[in-house]
Design brief:
18% strand; eight-stranded mixed β-sheet; 11 strands; alpha/beta; 29% helix; Rossmann fold; single chain
Length: 337
């Protein structure tokens, strides 16, 4: 097989998102990333539900399904079980995946099906013209909340952790290098990988993530997680997260102030579920936004267990004649005429 390039994954379809939409950047990153995997295009499948992000399969020169609102995880599960050799990707949004699709998302994560889930979070319903979504912030004024939303927002990563996901990460639409690294780790994981991508909607929720995207403020508002490394951030890398033993909560401190030293800073441990939960529940108006792999603690994937069970059954039971089985028991014949 000849070496693939970004162009091999681009289709002749006109890409139809609003000018400035973060989906363009994500699309280019994935089209550039896939050739590095050395997997034939015919072995990749992109499955989506309904929403702006769900147009993704049209723009990928691979197999794909543009399916039903919120049901992409279920269809992807069926695809993976039917052919476990396929490289399956689920593309969804905060509305598609966490509102009508919340139930389906929960079950694909708890089952730990070996596929990759990319959730584009722009904290708004874009396709249906700007209603507030499950992740929208309190007070957001939209056509469906003209006086400001009073709904408490859902954290996608917290939801994934509660559902039993074994790989949870977060990245940004326009940060190709960081997003590529996260995608690489997600793809290498055996089981359901869940990646939240902070994605800008320039029409209905523009600038919602400027705090972490603006180069002038990013260093103060991003916590780039690295397994086994201290949780440091800030322009000069002297700020960090320390565990307050009295409140059993994380707090921001600065090395060199108040007797704080480097050893006081929490070391990131991807396998620590309690730490992952604390990172996901940070008040992002006060704390930096954690980016990278937040939690990674793999177990045997669901599809491997299903196939192992099938093999065991085949070895212990006699071969079944399907034709005879269908004609056994209570059957009847419809006569012509």
């Amino acid at each position: 097989m000849s070496e693939l390039t970004l162009k091999d994954y681009a289709t002749e379809q006109e890409v139809r998102w609003c000018p400035g939409c973060g989906d363009y950047a994500i699309l280019k990153t994935i089209q550039k990333f896939l050739p590095t995997l050395g997997i034939p295009k015919e072995q990749s499948v992109f499955i989506s539900g309904i929403g702006c992000s769900s147009r993704f399969p049209y723009y990928m020169n691979t197999y794909g399904f543009h399916t039903i609102h919120g049901r992409a995880p279920s269809i992807a599960t069926g695809v993976k079980l039917a052919n476990p050799e396929l490289d399956v990707w689920v593309i969804t949004g905060d509305g598609d995946g966490l509102s009508i699709g919340g139930n389906h998302m929960l079950h694909v994560l708890r089952r730990n099906v070996n596929l990759n889930i990319l959730l584009f979070n722009n904290e708004i319903y874009g396709l249906t013209k700007g209603q507030y979504s499950p992740t929208s912030q309190v007070g957001l004024r939209t056509p469906s909340s003209p006086d400001g939303s009073v709904d408490n927002p859902l954290s996608p990563c917290t939801f994934a952790l509660g559902a039993g996901a074994r790989f949870i990460a977060r990245s940004i639409d326009t940060e190709m290098k960081h997003l590529t690294s996260v995608l690489s780790n997600a793809h290498a994981h055996q089981g359901s990988s869940f990646v939240e991508i902070l994605q800008n909607c320039p029409i209905y929720n523009d600038g919602i993530f400027d705090r972490v995207k603006d180069k002038k403020t990013a260093s103060e508002n991003r916590l780039i997680l690295q397994n086994g490394r201290a949780m440091l951030f800030g322009e000069d890398g002297t700020k960090g997260l320390r565990l307050n033993l009295e409140s059993l909560s994380l707090e921001v401190v600065t090395i060199g102030e108040g007797g704080v030293v480097l050893s006081d800073i929490v070391i990131h441990n991807e396998r620590n579920k309690t730490l992952a939960h604390m990172l996901m529940e940070l008040d992002l108006s006060i704390f930096p936004t954690p980016l990278g792999v937040i939690y990674h603690n793999p177990i045997n994937p669901y599809d491997d267990q299903v196939y192992a069970q099938r093999i065991k059954v085949r070895e212990t039971k006699e071969k079944v004649d399907m034709n005879a089985l269908l004609r056994s028991g209570h059957t009847w014949t419809v006569e012509k005429g």
